Amino acid sequence: MLLSLRLGRENSQVRERTVVDESLDYVVVGAGPAGLQLAYFLQRAGLSYLVVEAGSGPGTFFTRFPRHRKMISVNKVHTGWDDPELNLRMDWNSLLSDQEKLLFTPYSDKFWPNADVFVDYLASFVTEFDLKVRYDTRIERIERDGDFVLTASNGDCFRARRVIVATGVSRPYVPKIDGIELAEQYETVSVDPDDFTDQRVLIVGKGNSAYETADNLTERAAVIHVAGPHSQKLAWRTHFVGHLRAINANFLDMYQLKLQNAVLDGAVEKIERDGDGYLVSIRYARRDVLMQSRYDRVIFCTGFRFDASVFAEDCRPALTISDRFPDQTSAWESVNVPDLYFAGTITQGCAISRSPPAPSSTVSAMAYAH
Q1: Same domain for 193 and 121?
Q2: Would you say 113 and 75 are in contact if contact means Cβ atoms under 8 Å apart?
């Protein structure tokens, strides 16, 4: 049962705090595609649940990312097939339901759809099935006293026998590099190419966000270097959708044709101020040679990580892969916290650790976080 407690006045308005005095079967944290898909099936199964979302609507991640708004999840509307199962193989965005009208394909005929359209689709899915979603509810503490107790920043409190975290990798992954505070970050750097006219730009990272950024600057920047400590991983070779996709690989063509742009296999070790630019020390992987180059701008596109800071020490999930993903079993349960599960893009931790990695089961645009 949900109880509403009336709190003191703030800005001349009375706010009510929600407290759950009985445990739900599930609390799902995050109203992205994974959280909403779970809500649909939990509701069909007759289980008590609630989805809590920090943002003001569903799909908050997709209101900001990818920065240039083109998703890398396939939306092939015209397949030539009548079989709905086969059609879903070419539709990487739809959530599963018993209503054909709630497929994503009627919302866009673009093969690479715009992220804003996907946000609208998620909102329609919530409305159509009257899913139990609480917006503007940022969970700031998760504890356990037998059941899980989740406390939100607005004072709301929820109890559940099981928790499913579907927040995605919500924090920027910032490598430990001397001088990294001088660099710009993918999530806040300008997306206006004119701001980079005639500049030398270093982009650190070799995922889709790095190449999306590089491709956006090619018409204005004088020189673009993309750097990372390992050789480039290409999705069409690894069969893992989180690796570099062809849609973002135009930059490789310019590199191979020697059009002033380059891909560097080397680790950035230091960034220093150099007049109105930056002097960057890069240790090249194949020769173990440290070299320095000057750039006007340095942009880090090194992906995102899972945020475990909201968990109390006695129920904090173990992390893996440079502490970027929760360590989980083949059933997507935390390896050290029973009844704590994960869904969506953070389950890539299982796929990445396999060799060869398995394709992600999530919407492919979430691969921008990888």
Answers
A1: no
A2: yes
Beta pairing class for 13-20 and 304-305 = unpaired
Domain containing 69 — which CATH number?
Answer: 3.50.50.60
Under a CB-based contact definition with an 8 Å cutoff, are residues 189 and 299 in contact?
A: yes
The verdict on 10 and 125 lying in the same domain is yes
Q: For residue 187, what are the domain limits?
A: 180-302
- pLDDT for 263 equals 96
- The count of domains in the chain is 2
Crossing angle, helix 33-44 and helix 115-129, to 10 degrees? 20
- How far apart are the C-alpha atoms of 129 and 102, rounded to whole Å? 10
**Tens of pLDDT, residues 198-231:** 999 999 999 999 999 999 999 999 999 999 999 9
- Would you state the structure tokens that stand for residue 316, as one six-digit string? 């904090």
Query: How many Å apart are CA 156 and CA 7, to the nearest integer?
Result: 11
For residues 21 and 161, state if they share a domain.
Answer: yes
3-state secondary structure of 60: helix
Answer yes or no: do 292 and 342 share one domain.
no
Tokens read off for 23: 């445990």
Q: Pairing between strand 157-165 and 2-10?
A: unpaired
Q: Contact 298/227 with Cβ under 8 angstroms? A: no
Domain final position from 277, 302, 327: 302
* pLDDT tens-digit map of 49-83: 999 999 999 999 999 999 999 999 999 999 999 99
- Cα 64 to the center of its chain, rounded Å: 10
Q: Is 243 in the same domain as 222?
A: yes
Token duo for residue 157: 């409190």
- Residue 273: Cβ within 10 Å count: 10
Q: Are residues 154 and 271 in the same domain?
A: no
Q: Among 250, 279, 302, where does a domain finish? A: 302
Residue burial 109-147, b: 16+ Cβ < 10 Å; e: rest: eeeebbbebbbebbebbbeebebbbbeebebeebebeeb
